[in-house]
Write a structure and sequence with these properties.
35% helix; alpha+beta; two-stranded antiparallel sheet; two-stranded antiparallel ribbon
């Protein structure tokens, strides 16, 4: 935090919050002595998105300077990121995605983060209202998988299909509502 120029109060707060922590356990009538704990901020913590954004800020700043093409962009929500490549040619789009993935995974590794290649997905939107069969995206030379494009994709609770009809999303939501709605009792 100091390196990216944030106010010293931020780094002091987090240093104090994450250091010299103790806990004790209570079970029925038994109370343990204090134990030192190695505090980490888990995904469920309210601090997780804040720390994630602060840590990834510099990476996204570098990416913004690297990806000057207005048809390529990246969206990120905590630890989920989305690369967008807009191009009429799927081959050019795949080349842009390959380049973006290469730069992003390189930066994450340099910053000491782990890239989970197995969680990587590829999805193409199509303005064509007919059969659409895009080629796979081969990331094996970067240590990643061969990605077969998905027919539908979920991001932040929404399901997208290749034509943006939202049929998959509507089906999912209606099934969910039917499942959780109280059933009449006879």
């Amino acid at each position: 935090m100091d390196k990216i120029g944030l106010n010293q109060k931020f780094s002091t707060f987090f240093k104090n919050y994450l250091a010299r922590r103790k806990t004790k356990y209570l079970w029925k009538y038994f109370l343990s002595p204090f134990y030192n704990v190695d505090v980490r901020v888990g995904q469920e913590s309210a601090l997780s998105p804040i720390l994630s954004a602060l840590y990834l800020f510099l990476i996204f700043h570098i990416l913004e300077k690297t990806f000057k093409n207005p048809k390529n962009s990246i969206i990120s929500f905590v630890d989920d990121s989305l690369f967008i490549s807009q191009n009429k040619s799927i081959l050019h789009s795949n080349a842009n995605l390959f380049y973006s993935y290469n730069v992003f995974s390189f930066l994450l590794t340099k910053f000491g983060l782990v890239v989970k290649h197995g969680k990587t997905e590829v999805f193409h939107l199509s303005g064509l209202y007919k059969a659409f069969n895009p080629p796979p995206l081969d990331l094996t030379t970067l240590g990643g998988p061969i990605l077969l494009p998905k027919a539908s994709w979920q991001y932040l609770g929404f399901f997208f299909d290749q034509e943006l009809t939202f049929q998959h999303h509507i089906k999912f939501v209606t099934n969910f509502i039917q499942h959780v709605s109280p059933q009449p009792v006879d």
